[in-house]
Amino acid sequence: MSMTFGRALGLVGASVPDHLVADAEVPVLTGVQAQGDLLVVPLDATRLELLPVPPEGVQVVRGEGTGNSHWLHRGFDSPGVTYARGGQGQCIMVVYVPDDQSAQLIHTDEHGANGIGAGLYAIHEKREQGEQIRRVCD
Amino acid sequence: MLDSDTYFYEIDRLFWGFSAEEHEILRACHLEWSGAAISARLADRSTVEAAITGLYALVGRPPPQFVWCGSPPAAVLAAAGLGHSRQSIRSLLEESFRNSLRGGLGYTSWWDVPDHTPNPVWDLPVRSDCPRWDWPDIDDPRWEWTDDSLWDWLDFDDPRWDWLSPFAWAPERAAPRWKWYFPDPDPDEYEYSEWEEDEWDESEQAFGEFLAERLGDVLPGSVDDVVLNTLPGSVVSSDASGAGVQLSPAEIVRDEVFQSQSTADMLALADFAQRLLVFADTSLMYSPRDGEHLGLWSTVQRFAADPRMCVAVHALGLWATLVRSAGWWFPYADQVICAERPLVVRQEPAGTEPEFGLVHHRLHCEDGPAVQYPDGFAVYSWHGVRVPQWVITNPDVDRALAEPNTEIRRAALERIGWSDVLAHLGSEPIATAPDPGNAPHELALYSVPDAVLPGSVNLLVMVNGSPDRNGRPRRYAEPVPAAITDPLEAAAWQYGVPVDVYTALARRT
Question: Are B396 and B406 in contact (CB under 8 A)?
């Protein structure tokens, strides 16, 4: 089943904002891509212990109480997607997508969804220079 | 081949580290107690009054009179109004709390093991159907546990033993926890007969100390910060002559108030210890070989010999009730002044503590009060910085630029939005570059005049990859270190990646 914005946001129980086209297909990329305050970066190798992504998905940034959030989801036909939290610097999560599968990074509001193709990736979060350096929420 | 550092690290982790399950418990304790401490539900007055009366009884005081106020500043004013009649009994209560805590960290009562619930173990009252036994004198020689006659004397068919069986209550808690008690992992080497009662005490004490040392900053600190942040800065009262008197609730809290809500931090620690000790004892009860006798002995002697734990558990229950049900309260000899809890507390995540994954929060609300009390008193906060109300509700560039406090000035300018501030100032960018993956938009880097914000940041102006819900693309600016003068480098710094990774960006949403 091809992944559209409508289906992707439905997976995490969010409605499609009016200005996004619900039937538009979510491109699945294997390069660098950004979703608001998150950046997805392909990696060469890692020794992390990875956990299967549960059917309901995982919230990428923990503690976003209310408001909008980013979810990592294994979609409809990608049971092999695994992840681990943590990492160096701005990296907060590592994601592995097996061959012929894809993972979805889904935002509950304006950013819609990003499809992630086979490979190993780091997800980096954005920071800014405040009184102290702090993470950017969108 | 492991190097010695790694080896000792692994050994250390094996004996003193926390399992994934324990990390979950730790996070649950943190979430539960920090949540209770900043709860925005109204105080449960009858429960609060009953619990405080109970604490007064524990330190030998008659039931006090209660005065309820709509916010902490109102309570400070009410306390000031007591004049000479106020005599704080805070130190008495504090001592009682510390003793209870010591008991709570060191001892576990089987009576308080909950039925299949993850609630704090002291949360439940002693069950009324718990059978009472008349224990023989602890000096009775039959208690000599190495003596087989003990086992003859105890009747294991007695159904009351079921009350000592953790499996009967909470089988899922039966995880092996030898490591807390036994420094030597090899049971063949272990001479359990050498363990005496005082050594048990010592090992338990060591456990409490270990937790306090290991988590002392992490768990209590994070809860405490959250709570103290909700305190008002200062209030103005008038004295008898009508002149204004400045009162600082934060100072009064330090000097006079018993910090009921800030006990949440220590309760979180004690709760965690209690939950782990349940694991520990469960394994001792049913661990293989002779450990089971040892565990049984340990449990039996606690039941028989130590009323302290019952008192500690009872007192901690009262404190826990107060953290869940009350706001700030001031204990005086005959009166207790209680402040209502806030109606609203708004926070944002402020980073994750790396070792245990505890999420820290700070007060933040960009369009209203971060804390609002029922009597109208409110606290405004921008990313954890306390600000005057105008910064949030009526921000203005000229007023922001005139603000002498740089922290507040920065908050006000951020509230207005850096891109509007730049437009107001009419600045020209230092440099621009096409935004990778986000054509046709550009990245533009601006410096901030020293008069606005002295030399610490440059501003990166960007356009969002997706339009907002109103259909318009949003232009916004975020501060980056002033040392960065290239827009692409600034964007790469924000995500913590090399510039060539950022320039390879294929799609931005």
Answer: no
Closest Cβ opposite residue B383 in set A29, A107, A130: A130
Distances (CA, A) of B450 to B36, B376, B444: 44, 38, 19
- What the block records as the tokens of B289 is 């070989």
My answer on whether omega of the bond before B440 falls inside 30° of 0, hence cis, is: yes
B365-387 burial: b if 16+ Cβ within 10 Å, else e: beeebbbbbbeebbbbbbbbbbb
Question: Strand B475-481 vs strand B457-463: parallel, antiparallel, or unpaired?
Answer: antiparallel
The one-digit pLDDT tens for each residue of chain A (138 residues) are 688 988 998 888 888 887 778 888 899 998 899 998 899 988 876 566 788 999 989 988 865 544 568 999 998 889 999 998 877 788 889 999 999 999 999 988 778 899 999 999 999 988 888 666 666 655
Query: How far, in Å, CA of B164 to CA of B169, rounded?
Result: 9
List strand residue ranges (DSSP E) for B277-319, in order.
Answer: none
Question: pLDDT tens digit string along B380-414?
Answer: 888 888 888 899 999 988 888 888 887 788 889 88
CB B130: neighbour CB atoms within 10 A? 10
- Please give the ipTM for the structure prediction: 0.84
Burial of B138 (0-12, 13-18, 19+ CB in 10 A): exposed
**For residue A123, what are the β-bridge partners?**
A40, A93
User: Which of 26-45 (A) contact B at CB < 8 A?
Assistant: 27, 29, 31-36, 39, 41
Kindly state whether A52 is in contact with chain B, defined as any CB-CB distance less than 8 angstroms: no
Three-state secondary-structure class, residue B501? helix
Query: What is the C-alpha separation between B174 and B48, in angstroms, rounded?
Result: 35
**Cα–Cα distance measured from residue A78 to residue A98, given in angstroms and rounded to the nearest whole number:** 8
For the record, the structure tokens of B59 come out as: 């330190």
Burial B277-296 (b: 16+ CB within 10 A, else e): bbbbbbbbbbbeeebebbbb
> Helix (H, G, I), strand (E, B), or coil: what is residue B349?
strand
The residue written with tokens 């003990």 in the block is B150
Instruction: Determine whether the interchain pair B509/A41 forms a contact, defined as Cβ–Cβ distance below 8 Å.
Output: no
Confidence tier at B324 by pLDDT (50, 70, 90): confident
Residue A16: DSSP 8-state: P
Q: Specify whether the CB–CB gap between B478 and A49 falls below 8 A.
A: no
* Chain A residues with CB-CB distance to B496 below 8 A: 89-91, 124, 127
Beta bridge partners of B458: B447, B480
- SS3 of B31, please? helix
**C-alpha distance from residue B98 to each of A59, B13, B104, B178, B262 (Å):** 39, 30, 10, 28, 13
B226-282 pLDDT per residue, tens: 455 555 544 444 444 545 545 455 455 444 444 445 556 566 666 665 555 444 333
Residues of A in contact with B419 (CB under 8 A): none
B153, HSE (Cβ side, Cα atoms, 13 Å): 13
